[in-house]
Amino acid sequence: MRLRTAATALVAATLAPLVLTAPTAHAASAATPAAPYDFNGDGRADLAIGAPGATVAGQAGAGAVSVVHSGTGGPSTSTRTLLTQNTAGVPGSAEAGDAFGTSVASADLDRDGYADLVVGAPGEDTSSDTNDGVATIVWGSASGLSGARTVNNFAHSGHDRYGLSLAAGDFDADGHPDIAVGATGSMMLTHVPGPITRSGPWYGGTAQGVGAYLESQGVPYLSSGDVTGEGFDVLVTHGHRNGGGSFTDLRNGNTAHSGDWFSYLPPGYVSAVGDIDGDGYGDIAVGNDREPSADFQGVLGGQVTIVYGSPQGRDRDRPEVVLTQNTAGVPGASEAGDRFGSGVALGDVNGDGYADLVVGAAGENSGAGAVTVLYGSASGLTTKGAASYSQNSTGVPGGSEKGDLFGARVVLTDHTGDGRADLSLSGTGENSGDGSVWFLRGTATGLTTTGATSFGPASTGVSTAGSPRFGTALGG
């Protein structure tokens, strides 16, 4: 991997990374790798739904993940898999407060033609550490997910809540997907390199602190993608700065070298990477849904900022695009508590070759929630044809109620196999904290509510005792 140091990059002071080395021999790939979340290798992304508050065998907050498999009509609960730490083959056991399903990520880690699922349980206790945390790989196959392995964690003493956030991608440009794991503490970001197999050795890795991030908050969100157009992935990290406010950075996902390549991004709490203008460089959408009273860098009603990619990472010659509900062409108006930017996703909804943007506004209308779609083009993101959807939109199941939080999380992925990205979104407050998920199909003319579907935890086997918060994590 060629490491770059941009002339204008700002390098944060970090703790010296903990580096472990291991044999360099790599296993040979035997199949065409599957796309992320295609767990059964049928060419359609499945949907992984985290419910970290779920009660399992009487253990409150043990957590669960529902995997809903996709067909030509999209995700269908008739073919699903429920995963908990009580599932046969999954290491550990379901215990109160484990929060299994707080985060999810996916890649074909063992390159066998089936995507694998990584699940974070940051509340997991070990014999020596309360809330040490754990991340678990569940393996894909022709029949779906089965069997599991715990992700290597070699910095137990330097962090807590391992698995607080997750991302997967080829961060060291060796052709093997890697895993990035967020945590709290002095060593809050870990790079676990591939090849990652069902058994056998782990190939070293690194763990480090991240600049001026608050150790108590750690790295609660990660995203990744090919921003430089060189065929490998970089990492977008989120945290809280000492003294208050949010922090977002773009960095080499191989944390042993992240100080060699680093730049600040607009502050926010969530992000997504996709090529909005079709120039071969991934662009970054950063959502900051906080009010100025909660984050001195926030704005009334929330905002999303687009940063365009380049061979150097962030394109500093191209202005950022800042979007609020007061932006011309964006539906609605900025109001306190709207939480515009609670979720962001990038994907090609209409199949024109440009990534489109979906923004969640979970606080809209007293927390009922809404989502907005804006389309990509050769000149970048445009507000032409922008549209907003809520549970009051014709064709969308349900009805808008205070506190539903519709749009808390959003993902854009092709679930039907037609080459267009479909929208899956969650409302984690639906039915007093049960949570729910909705599916809207992508078409040549954009998103459609025709045939839209919705389902809650009970239809996927998740208990509604307590507040499962179904959809807290969403991957597909």
From TrEMBL:
<dbReference type="InterPro" id="IPR013519">
    <property type="entry name" value="Int_alpha_beta-p"/>
</dbReference>
<dbReference type="InterPro" id="IPR028994">
    <property type="entry name" value="Integrin_alpha_N"/>
</dbReference>
<keyword id="KW-0677">Repeat</keyword>
<dbReference type="InterPro" id="IPR000413">
    <property type="entry name" value="Integrin_alpha"/>
</dbReference>
<feature type="signal peptide">
    <location>
        <begin position="1"/>
        <end position="27"/>
    </location>
</feature>
<keyword id="KW-0732">Signal</keyword>
<feature type="region of interest" description="Disordered">
    <location>
        <begin position="450"/>
        <end position="476"/>
    </location>
</feature>
<protein>
    <submittedName>
        <fullName>FG-GAP repeat protein</fullName>
    </submittedName>
</protein>
<dbReference type="InterPro" id="IPR013517">
    <property type="entry name" value="FG-GAP"/>
</dbReference>
<keyword id="KW-0378">Hydrolase</keyword>
<keyword id="KW-0325">Glycoprotein</keyword>
<dbReference type="Pfam" id="PF01839">
    <property type="entry name" value="FG-GAP"/>
</dbReference>
<feature type="compositionally biased region" description="Polar residues">
    <location>
        <begin position="456"/>
        <end position="466"/>
    </location>
</feature>
